[in-house]
Structures are given as structure tokens and as C-alpha cells.
Design brief:
Number of helices: 8
Distance between the termini: 44 Å
Mean pLDDT: 83
Number of strands: 16
Helix content: 10-25%
Radius of gyration: 21 Å
Low-confidence stretches: 264-284
């Protein structure tokens, strides 16, 4: 097998196999690190296994790799990764449907809309019943308008809103924008906690959903936990590679397996309004 070069360094067989990888696969992002942090760790693992030395930004020139939709640091689950020519397919993944399981907490609001933020408000919630919550969910299914959170990856003048907020700068809320919720269902209700399954389109924030549900119930609510269980055709159970599987051979096998998933993925999903009890939601959050 012919050796190839990267940055003037002659590479061996492992590196040759790594740089021949192309397509989409999924990894598991644990709670804690950023999506970019997970991607950098994955890249470092692969380059180290291939014996490729990297210096700073040169690794980005050596190995083309990217992810198809940010998961907040506090969230876990499926992170779709593109490698080689697969990076050109990531834009489609950003707009694709996603499924999440979210745990909300009634009676408290935070500045970040999740458990990482400072408590900004507390209200009673004892009067809320399971039926009240289920009835409210119907208002958040279908094509709706949603105001994104201030702490988010959205940008103002080239900087993330979350970065500006952490610096103490004044940030105006972005205007409400259209988003799509394919399905939304209540899985568990143990006040003050409630568990939702959500399936949504691109640009949707689960944190905002939980907060808006609290307001609609005349109380407040914040998201305690979030897990992305599906992104496009990639599911947490079947396709997400955990860290111990981040090897060249395992990713090659996953790419081969996942290739068959992509052609059959419909570009537009139908709303499941006829069976609201079966609903779930997908989002980009977050």
C-alpha cells in the first residue's frame, strides 16, 4: 500500500486507512464537555492511533472532521460526526429531525433555562396536575414560534450570545422564530419533576420549551437533564459509539453500517397529530 504524506511526514498503513475514511457516523457525547471538545478529543485519539504528530492548528488541515449539530455541555446523547467527504453532508443533518428525552423541574427558573444557571424565580406548583401538563403540551406541537434562550450558540456580531452574557454584556433576546415539533409527550409526572419525549426539527431549543411550558402553567420551570436519543437516522442505542470504540477500525465498521441508513432518510417528516399519545420531540438543544 502506498504511503501518503501529511505536513511533510510519511504516514503508515493506519494513517492511510484513517485518511481514506469518509461518511457520517455517530458518537456518544457525555454530560460535561462541549460538542467541540468531544470532537477534538475524537480527532486527537484517531491521529494518535495513526501515529500522526500534530502541532496546533495543523491537525485541522490533516484530518477533515466535523459535527452535525451542537449539544449543550449539560446535555448528553447522539452527536453525528462527518469525516472526509462526509463533512459536506453535515448541513443536511443540521436541518434534520432530532429526538430528545428531557427532565423538567417545576417551580424554579434560571438565567440559562437549565440546571447550570442561577435561580432567578421561584413559584408554587402544587396546583398543577398531570392532566394540566398534558393539555398544555398540545399548544407546543406542530409549527410554533419560539424565542431562543439568551445563553445559546446563536451569535451577535460574530460572538456567541452565551459568551457575551458571561462577560456581563447586555444582550437583547433574539426575536421569536418558526420551529417545528413533530411530536411531544409526557412520559412521567412526579412533581416537581416531569419527563418529556420530544421530536423536533432544526433550530429548536428544548430549554425554551420547558421554560415556556412552565409559564403556560402559571408557574416557572427549568430543564434538569437532556438526552438526544436520535438525530436523523442515527439512534443512541444502535449507532452511537462510546469513547472506548473511538478507533479507526470501529469507525470504519460504523461508516459501512451507517451508509445504508442515509438514502432512506425522508427529507420531510409528517406531523404525528393523529396519535398525540405517541408523540415525541426532537431538537437541537440544547
Amino acid at each position: 500500500m502506498a504511503a501518503r504524506e501529511a505536513g511533510g511526514v510519511v504516514l503508515g498503513k493506519s494513517a492511510d486507512k484513517l485518511f481514506s475514511l469518509s461518511g457520517l457516523f455517530a458518537v456518544y457525547k457525555p454530560k460535561g464537555p462541549t460538542s467541540a471538545g468531544v470532537l477534538n478529543l475524537l480527532k486527537e485519539r484517531l491521529l494518535a492511533e495513526a501515529g500522526v504528530q500534530t502541532n496546533g492548528d495543523k491537525r485541522n488541515q490533516v484530518l477533515k472532521i466535523g459535527h452535525g449539530g451542537t449539544l449543550d455541555s449539560a446535555a448528553a446523547g447522539v452527536l453525528v460526526v462527518g469525516i472526509g467527504k462526509g463533512t459536506k453532508m453535515l448541513r443536511t443533518m443540521l436541518a434534520g429531525s432530532k429526538k430528545y428525552t428531557a427532565i423538567g423541574l417545576l417551580g424554579k427558573a434560571t438565567d440559562t433555562l437549565d440546571a447550570t444557571g442561577k435561580v432567578t424565580e421561584e413559584k408554587p406548583y402544587d396546583q398543577i396536575t398531570k392532566g394540566d401538563l398534558e393539555n398544555v403540551l398540545q399548544k407546543f406541537t406542530g409549527d410554533i414560534m419560539q424565542v431562543p434562550p439568551l445563553y445559546s450558540a446563536l451569535k451577535k456580531d460574530g460572538e456567541r450570545l452565551s459568551t457575551l452574557m458571561k462577560r456581563g454584556e447586555a444582550v437583547e433576546a433574539k426575536p421569536a422564530r418558526p420551529v417545528r415539533v413533530y411530536s411531544l409527550s409526557l412520559q412521567q409526572f412526579q412533581p416537581p419533576l416531569f419527563t418529556l419525549d420530544v421530536e423536533c426539527g432544526g433550530g429548536f431549543y428544548v430549554r425554551s420549551l420547558v421554560s415556556d411550558i412552565g409559564k403556560e402553567l402559571s408557574t416557572c420551570a427549568t430543564m434538569q437533564e437532556l438526552t438526544r436519543t436520535k438525530h436523523g437516522p442515527f439512534t443512541l442505542e444502535e449507532h452511537a459509539l462510546y469513547e472506548d470504540k473511538w478507533t479507526i477500525d470501529e469507525i470504519a465498521r460504523s461508516l459501512e453500517h451507517c451508509t445504508s441508513l442515509l438514502p432512506g432518510e425522508p427529507s420531510h417528516k409528517k406531523l404525528k397529530t393523529e396519535h398525540p399519545s405517541e408523540t415525541a420531540v426532537s431538537c437541537e438543544d440544547k
